[in-house]
Amino acid sequence: MKRIMSVNGSSVYEYATTGPARTLICSTPSSRALLTDPTLCGTPYRRHSRNAVAQALHALTATDTSDLSTTPADQFATLNVLRGGLSFGIEDALGNVLQADPAVSFVGTERPPDGPIELTYDRWELADASVLVVGDIIGTGSTLARVLTEAVERAAKRGRPLQSILVFTIGSRLGVQRVLAALAATPAIASTYVQSQPSLTVVALEALYDLPSPEAPPAFPHFPFDLLRAPAAAAPEYEHHRLSTPGSLFERCAIYDGGVRAFTPADHTAERSAWWASVTDRKLPLAEVATRTAGLETYRKPLEQWKTTVPWSTQISHDEAAAIHRLGQKAIAFADDLTTDEYARDHLVAKGHTGTRT
Question: Taking the model in full, what pTM does it have?
Fold first, then answer.
């Protein structure tokens, strides 16, 4: 993981992947706040999400990491995957940062219990665009893989294939890999159409998260699409920020359900409360929660050994790495010293306050 640039509180890192697609991890002030405060929901959630995308887009255009700044304004189209994708505000970011006024498509999907992802609603407005920009949460990756494959095929059928796709996401490492693989496998669409495979860039906000292990104990409450934090594929700015916020450090996952959190905040609050009630009722040790949801176990290692487990340790100074490591050790000691009941009662961030900081 290599830092490409840092400007105005935002940083961009190149994340090594196989194949021609490019994966970047971008840390911004708004996404750091969003992903460390589970009480942000409804309007504040949407505002932070859209600001994060705009800040990330500005960071990309401030470097030579893309050709966005030289792409004609009429060559952009955006795609909203209902309903979580609406929170990313992709079209507004393009307008504010690049003065583009893109055509906007909408797609709704459904996952049958025993079948592939289905498109239940679609309105495609690709116009003559050569660049498709998408914002969505990527869990397992199957939804976005299906939607982007459809977009590529539709663009090819119009006789003008997409030249590039740019995805902004809060997503998992495995899900992003599945999206990359699905697009790489998209054939040179049938010979009756113009054949082309677009270039693909994925911009992950703050981290590429883990998904729950199939080997996790059945007693531990989680969902297969939960985005679990781990330091190895996180921006160091994000790692420092989350470790400094113990009131939200042990949440079930980084984002919960983005659509629910953005548009039905009462349901998000109830879902979060129910999860913590389940954890405390089962009397799960806080140290186990710290390991399974927050990836803190690695901080038990001495500094120099820990540095070998985080690829970004070479991109920051020794003092910066040592400061993050100290925060991690404080966090794991915090989890060892408290019961889950004590933490939920005295430290868990609740609506209206931000919790104590280590």
Answer: 0.91
